[in-house]
Amino acid sequence: MSILLAKDLKKYYGEDDTLVKALDGVSLSVERGEFVSIIGTSGSGKSTLLNMLGGLDNPTSGNVIIDDKDISELKGDELCIFRRRKIGFIFQSFNLVPSISVYDNIVLPIKLDGKSVDEDYIENVIDTLGLNEKLKVLPSKLSGGQQQRVAIARALSSKPAIILADEPTGNLDSKTSQDVLGLLKTTSKKFNQTIVMITHNEEIAQMADRIVHIEDGCIV
User: Fold this and answer.
1) Of 25, 147, 203, 218, which is most buried with the most CB atoms under 10 A?
2) pLDDT tens track for 121-166
3) Strand 87-91 relative to strand 162-166, pairing
4) Closest CA to 28 of 67, 59, 2
């Protein structure tokens, strides 16, 4: 069953001689629990596609359906709430809140939503990612690899429909990158979590269940 469906997505900038087709009719289906890697060079359209899938930008035309909801129809607060509940994000730059502890960063999406924390589930996530000894420290006290583990835990915390990972190992060395990707793979299987990851690195892409290539705004 498809948890994510993109239908004929187009994103155009400019017009006439200055027209740029960042996405030009992309359609994509991702099954529940699948780990998909989208690979492409710089300027291929992969980041634009991820922004469309995550509701961070609007397509010129086309639809994105997540967990049976067409997010193209959502606006303002409604879209923000949907993103917080249904989409987990992992960014290259971690995007942790520097002034609060590791634990508070992990449960932040849940607290923002006014919901109670499923302590057993969160404890399982924290244990799986090896963060038990770091819960009370600030992100600045962590290595890059540890910060990305916290970002993965935060993305998992609200049990989202999908996790979107934007070059999640871009700021990490090769050894740490392999560790982080291994943990992504582990959490995908353990928690039946759907993950869509973009990368320009073929070796990293191979960690996924399926690889999708994008060039010049089109899937090839």
Assistant:
1) 147
2) 999 999 999 999 999 999 999 999 999 999 999 999 999 999 999 9
3) parallel
4) 2
